[in-house]
Amino acid sequence: MKFRKVAAVLLAAAMTASMMSGCGKSAEIGASSAKESSDAAEQTNDEAKAEEEATAGAEELDAVKTSSAGEDVKEFTAFFAVPGDELNDDNEIQQKIAEITGAKVKETWLTGQTAEEAVGTLIAGGEYPDFIDGSDGTAQLYAAGALVALDDYLDNYPNLKNFWSEEEWDKVRQDDGHIYWIPQFGNPYEEDMTATPAEAFWIQTRVLKWDNYPEIKTLDQYFDLIERYNEANPVMEDGTSNIPYTILCDDWRYFCLENPPQFLDGYPNDGSVIVNVEDKKIVDYNTTPTAKAYFQKLNEEFQKGIVDPESFTQSYDEYIAKLSSGRVLGMVDQAWQFQNAMDTLKQQGLESQGCSYVPLALTISEDLTPQYMSEPAINVANGVGITVSCEDVEGALQFLNDILEPEVRILRSWGIEGVDYEVGDDGIFYRTDEEWAKSTNSAYKASHGCAYSYLPNYTGLLADKINTSDPKEQPSEFIKSLPSDTQECLKAYGCETYVDMMGGIAPVPGPWFPMYSYSNTMTTATAGGTAWTKMGEIKHEYLPKVVMAEDFEQGWSEYLDVYAGCQPEDFLSEMQEELDRRIENAAKYQ
């Protein structure tokens, strides 16, 4: 009840921010794209049918529903400082999990604020939910003493204790020697079964099909194809104009603009720096020759009208709306960030026009090997913690322990047998076409699906070691989960998965990976952290100017001058110290 009051404060702050925003740009920087998907889906008969099927399926199973007021079910609250989808209060699988674990969690997500703003509001109020993942505001929570130290508890909860190795838990310890949060992602059970890339240069299948599915390996080849296609096919079937290339630059999401130079140079996603594997030295990817070539290319494409002129003013919601319309031919993004748009494209039947996206792993030149996809690695910068407002820390930890049980993991990912998936005679899980259609339906997910997506879970395999945690990564099911035009595209390239399109998964380059798990924890308490903050501010302000500059060389020179004034050498020095520390620490476990 305490957190509900605080949540109301957050909502009021979000509404105020929205009313104070300018006419051209929504202030809801972190708002979930699920709203667009839901609004579009509600207009279809499929939505109503899906809801009826969810209810019918639950009635067949009898035991799925539990009274939300049941005295024996503990109810916890959680806030995740990222956009997400709210579940219905009577969500059927959530109720089923509550029957097994004796607990349930009311999840709330970020709307209308940045993570730091939302966390700051909570800290100012002094009341918190039971669970929290502060995202970029995690360091604030730690500094404010808002989190419970978990060290003395973990031994009593074996599923949690064994979730990470001793070496990995040590990486999560803070400077006072304690563990305050549980990284919930990037932990494969048995083996990595990744089928979906994170970041990539995405392109619509219609563009590739038009040119007979050419090999596109470099940045120049990518834009050349988009230019030629748009010249020959400037509008969609309904007469609306294409948007050849757009860029998401809204708040922290501007990584879609600023970090491609690391990938284009053939390095994996360390996020904030390049690590030269040969000499173990930190390199600033912002000032490399490839960085200049990349931004010069964007500048050229902007002058040609290929780059969306609204790129640098559009909100995240506006960006998602554009992708959902099918008009955007290409962009850089991470798959999870626009999945709702992909679902909307499929619900609207736009796969028939080739509007689905496939990933490309581009480099600046063909002699480089791309490393867009790496094996999972722990991100120690944040995770789910238990706050000092939680009145039942042991009960909260027991719940996290219990949702890692095999039975619950299946419910979280696959759903209910006979309703959401089937089991073959060989024990392999699969979904019918109808079940796959329901799984992407926003109303059905709200009433029936409960992934507890920001609580600890494994990737890779289930406990049976034959089925995958993620249905979309089940080898026999992956292709069925894709739109028809994507299936056709993969087949044309001789690929079975997106991973094949991206050149495979690279091994983790070293014990330091990923370095963003350190830079994300930096604060202005150090010279390096101060430089890091200023660098972000300058890049966010000046890189759009560089792309739009009439004289690129002049714009680039002005940017470098201002950037140098941030003293990036302080940041790079601290990153080098952390790189050396991680290498030294890893040696203790070899």
From TrEMBL:
Flavoprotein in keyword set: no
Region (Disordered): 24-69
InterPro entries to which the protein is assigned, alphabetical: Bact_solute-bd_prot1
Signal peptide: 1-21
Record key words, sorted: Signal
Protein name in the entry: Aldouronate transport system substrate-binding protein
Organism in which the protein naturally occurs: Murimonas intestini
Lineage per the UniProt record: Bacteria, Bacillati, Bacillota, Clostridia, Lachnospirales
